[in-house]
Amino acid sequence: MTDRAPQVTADRDDPPSRPLVQRVGAILWPSFFAAAVATVVFFIVIDPLILRDITFPDLEISRQGGYTIAFFMFWVATAASSLFTWILLRPAGRFQGPRR
Q1: Tally of structural domains, the chain
Q2: Are 71 and 36 in contact (CB under 8 A)?
Q3: What is the pTM of this model?
């Protein structure tokens, strides 16, 4: 018995698409953890009240509000990164015509 890789033929169909919930979860779940780590690391160095006084001194944002806003900003940024990676790694065959 040999351990050969399977041959890919030109007429082979692409694998079926994954469910939408699984695709969204694969983007949001890792980005949630990355945002949590980024928030902790960022606020080890920066106090949210000092950041508020520098950027928006007229707004009444508590320390906890600053943590919350920053977490969601980091989550959006890391989710966008995961989304772009997913877009770039999709199989090309789904967007081109049938193979010859």
Answers
A1: 1
A2: yes
A3: 0.71
